[in-house]
Amino acid sequence: MDTFILATQYMFWVGFVGMAAGTMYFLVERNSLPEKYRETATVAALVTFVAAIHYSAMKHYVGTDGSIDTLLNFPTEIRYIDWLITTPLLLVKFPTLLGLKGAEAKDILTKLIFADIVMIVAGYIGETSINQAGVTQTGWTGWIVGCVAWLYILNILYTQVTEKAEKAPKEIKAGLLSMRSFILVGWAIYPLGYVLTLISADTTMIVAREFIYNIADLINKVGFGLVAVFSVKALSK
Question: Which domain holds residue 152?
């Protein structure tokens, strides 16, 4: 268990370094993209920059001493503040890559961001309840509401966004479909991590949850941005 605790603590460092490196890459690549699509790299850099700031704070709280007390010392609020800022920015990339403007973009963004906020707030309320009192009804309710909101986001992506993607250049379409898969598969990691503490709220499960969250963040923030930027670079070639 001590080794797993230490590995989880260092995963916060890995998260910080990965987000910082991603930010530098997206900013460097930005000017190599067609002007029309540079906003894609800008948003990707914003996501990883915000995440790097929060991971810098979290790694300070969790320490590197292999102690469970130190690891569980960090405020859950920091992680959820990060998600409340970065996940809407990730979703903004869909209408951005599609080049949608005006009412069309507003309609899709309003639905996506509203559902995203519901998902994050429900998750925070539920997880805070678990951290304080173990497996609770509030914890289960937060998980269920969060999953329903996530499924609604997927519905928008697999209907409205996919329909719009059919009219986009093939490189952009391929990128959008890959990004859609991140929201389906990559975001599924979060409720899987959360549900561990609904099976049992002992310290082992809580540590495992944080370890899984850190891996998911790297995949969904750095990886998601890379797919978006690579699709634009393929188009420019």
Answer: 2-236
Give the number of domains in the chain. Answer: 1
pLDDT tens column, 93-135: 888 777 767 677 788 889 999 999 999 999 999 999 998 888 9
How far is the C-alpha of 89 from the C-alpha of 94, rounded, in Å?
10
Distance CA 30, CA 47 (A): 14
What CATH number should be reported for the domain holding residue 87? 1.20.1070.10
Give the residue among 146, 176, 144 at the shortest CA–CA distance from 163: 176
Whether 77 and 163 have beta carbons less than 8 Å apart is answered as no
Angle between helices 137-156 and 189-199 (to 10 degrees): 160
Each residue's pLDDT tens digit, 196-210: 999 988 889 999 999
Check: CB of residue 207 under 8 Å from CB of residue 68: yes
